[in-house]
Amino acid sequence: MVDKTDSFSALVERLGRWIIFAGAVSWIYVAGRWGWKGAAGFAFGVVAAYLNMRWLANALSKPESVSSGLLVLRYALAAGAAYVILETFEISPLFVLAGLLTAALAAILEVLFQLFYART
User: Fold this and answer.
1) What percent of the chain has pLDDT over 70?
2) How many domains does the chain have?
3) What distance in Å separates the CA atoms of residue 93 and residue 67, rounded to the nearest whole number?
4) Which residue range is the domain that position 21 belongs to?
Protein backbone atom coordinates (compact mmCIF):
# COMPACT_ATOMS: atom_id res chain seq x y z
CA MET A 1 0.00 0.00 0.00
CA VAL A 2 1.32 3.45 -0.96
CA ASP A 3 1.76 5.98 1.80
CA LYS A 4 -0.39 9.09 1.23
CA THR A 5 2.46 11.43 2.13
CA ASP A 6 4.72 9.84 -0.49
CA SER A 7 2.08 10.04 -3.22
CA PHE A 8 1.32 13.68 -2.34
CA SER A 9 4.98 14.67 -2.44
CA ALA A 10 5.40 12.82 -5.75
CA LEU A 11 2.40 14.70 -7.14
CA VAL A 12 3.83 18.03 -6.01
CA GLU A 13 7.16 17.22 -7.64
CA ARG A 14 5.48 16.24 -10.91
CA LEU A 15 3.29 19.36 -10.92
CA GLY A 16 6.38 21.49 -10.40
CA ARG A 17 8.10 19.83 -13.34
CA TRP A 18 4.97 20.25 -15.50
CA ILE A 19 4.80 23.97 -14.65
CA ILE A 20 8.46 24.44 -15.55
CA PHE A 21 8.09 22.41 -18.77
CA ALA A 22 4.91 24.16 -19.92
CA GLY A 23 6.35 27.53 -18.96
CA ALA A 24 9.63 26.98 -20.82
CA VAL A 25 7.97 25.77 -24.01
CA SER A 26 5.41 28.58 -23.93
CA TRP A 27 8.04 31.18 -23.04
CA ILE A 28 9.94 30.39 -26.24
CA TYR A 29 6.83 31.14 -28.27
CA VAL A 30 6.00 34.29 -26.31
CA ALA A 31 9.56 35.60 -26.63
CA GLY A 32 9.59 35.04 -30.37
CA ARG A 33 6.15 36.52 -30.95
CA TRP A 34 5.98 39.49 -28.53
CA GLY A 35 9.58 40.28 -27.61
CA TRP A 36 11.33 40.78 -24.29
CA LYS A 37 8.53 42.66 -22.49
CA GLY A 38 6.01 39.90 -23.13
CA ALA A 39 8.58 37.23 -22.28
CA ALA A 40 9.50 38.97 -19.02
CA GLY A 41 5.87 39.26 -17.95
CA PHE A 42 5.20 35.66 -18.90
CA ALA A 43 8.29 34.46 -17.01
CA PHE A 44 7.16 36.38 -13.91
CA GLY A 45 3.77 34.65 -14.13
CA VAL A 46 5.36 31.21 -14.48
CA VAL A 47 7.65 31.78 -11.49
CA ALA A 48 4.71 33.08 -9.44
CA ALA A 49 2.64 30.02 -10.40
CA TYR A 50 5.46 27.68 -9.39
CA LEU A 51 6.10 29.41 -6.06
CA ASN A 52 2.38 29.58 -5.31
CA MET A 53 2.01 25.84 -5.93
CA ARG A 54 4.99 25.04 -3.68
CA TRP A 55 3.77 27.36 -0.93
CA LEU A 56 0.28 25.89 -1.02
CA ALA A 57 1.61 22.32 -1.01
CA ASN A 58 3.80 23.14 2.00
CA ALA A 59 0.82 24.61 3.85
CA LEU A 60 -1.30 21.54 3.07
CA SER A 61 1.35 19.07 4.16
CA LYS A 62 1.93 20.85 7.49
CA PRO A 63 -1.37 22.53 8.44
CA GLU A 64 -0.20 23.54 11.91
CA SER A 65 2.81 25.48 10.63
CA VAL A 66 3.12 29.22 10.13
CA SER A 67 2.89 28.87 6.34
CA SER A 68 -0.76 27.84 6.55
CA GLY A 69 -1.54 31.09 8.34
CA LEU A 70 0.19 33.07 5.62
CA LEU A 71 -2.01 31.77 2.79
CA VAL A 72 -3.78 35.11 2.39
CA LEU A 73 -0.58 37.10 2.74
CA ARG A 74 0.98 35.38 -0.26
CA TYR A 75 -1.66 36.86 -2.56
CA ALA A 76 -0.92 40.33 -1.24
CA LEU A 77 2.81 39.77 -1.77
CA ALA A 78 2.30 38.48 -5.31
CA ALA A 79 -0.04 41.35 -6.18
CA GLY A 80 2.40 43.91 -4.81
CA ALA A 81 5.34 42.43 -6.70
CA ALA A 82 3.31 42.20 -9.89
CA TYR A 83 2.19 45.82 -9.58
CA VAL A 84 5.74 47.10 -9.12
CA ILE A 85 7.11 45.03 -12.00
CA LEU A 86 4.27 45.89 -14.36
CA GLU A 87 4.42 49.61 -13.63
CA THR A 88 8.20 49.82 -13.72
CA PHE A 89 8.70 47.97 -17.00
CA GLU A 90 5.32 48.83 -18.57
CA ILE A 91 4.48 45.18 -19.25
CA SER A 92 0.94 44.14 -20.12
CA PRO A 93 -0.77 42.24 -17.28
CA LEU A 94 -2.09 39.74 -19.81
CA PHE A 95 1.37 38.21 -20.15
CA VAL A 96 1.59 37.72 -16.38
CA LEU A 97 -1.88 36.18 -16.36
CA ALA A 98 -0.89 33.85 -19.19
CA GLY A 99 2.17 32.80 -17.18
CA LEU A 100 0.02 32.14 -14.13
CA LEU A 101 -2.19 29.90 -16.22
CA THR A 102 0.68 27.47 -16.74
CA ALA A 103 -0.35 25.98 -13.39
CA ALA A 104 -3.74 25.08 -14.90
CA LEU A 105 -2.00 23.62 -17.95
CA ALA A 106 0.27 21.63 -15.62
CA ALA A 107 -2.78 20.21 -13.83
CA ILE A 108 -4.28 19.13 -17.17
CA LEU A 109 -0.99 17.51 -18.18
CA GLU A 110 -0.86 15.69 -14.84
CA VAL A 111 -4.41 14.39 -15.33
CA LEU A 112 -3.45 13.10 -18.78
CA PHE A 113 -0.31 11.54 -17.31
CA GLN A 114 -2.40 9.77 -14.68
CA LEU A 115 -4.96 8.59 -17.22
CA PHE A 116 -2.59 7.20 -19.82
CA TYR A 117 0.65 6.34 -18.03
CA ALA A 118 0.18 5.80 -14.30
CA ARG A 119 -2.86 3.57 -14.26
CA THR A 120 -2.95 1.31 -11.24
Assistant:
1) 87
2) 1
3) 27
4) 4-116
